[in-house]
Write a structure and sequence with these properties.
With 128 residues, this protein is mainly β. The chain is built from no helices and 10 strands. The chain has 2 domains: 54 residues, Roll (SH3 type barrels); 62 residues, no CATH class. The strands form 2 sheets. It has a 5-stranded antiparallel beta sheet with strand order 4-3-2-1-5, with no helix packed on it. The protein has a 5-stranded mixed beta sheet with strand order 8-7-6-10-9, with no helix packed on it. The two termini are 27 Å apart.
Length: 128
């Protein structure tokens, strides 16, 4: 196993390139395997993926709070037509990246992941 230098996620306002979308999911955190001036190499689904440094936010330690993702009306639903469809506003588990749906009008301060059972604070003040 490679040494993890930090944890990275896609900046919430990052512009995705038109040629090929980055495989990073909004709100999910990925291990940083190496980092340079222009690129970081992340582990995504067991693969080494180079990503432009300006597309990611990097932290030293793995976050333990649920990231909140807001999809605009222009954003495609990443899980459309599946049981994983989380709607326009959802949380992302910091441990396993599972989408946690938030019902309209309900603003939970804590959440529990139905997949890995991680419990934690919902970080409404940071979006992913």
């Amino acid at each position: 196993m490679e040494q993890i230098l930090g944890w990275a996620r896609l900046w919430f306002a990052a512009k995705r390139d038109e040629e090929g979308e980055t495989p990073l999911r909004n709100g999910a955190w990925y291990p940083v395997l190496s980092s340079g001036v222009n690129r970081a190499v992340l582990e995504v689904s067991g693969q080494r993926v180079p990503v432009p440094q300006d597309l990611v936010e990097v932290r030293e330690k793995r976050p333990d709070r649920f990231t909140v993702v807001y999809r605009t009306y222009d954003d495609p639903n990443p899980a459309r037509g599946t049981r994983a469809d989380a709607g326009r506003r959802y949380g992302v588990c910091p441990k396993c990246a599972t989408r946690i749906p938030f019902r309209s009008g309900i603003i939970p301060s804590r959440a529990t992941c139905h997949k890995c059972k991680h419990e934690g604070i919902v970080a409404w003040w940071e979006t992913g």
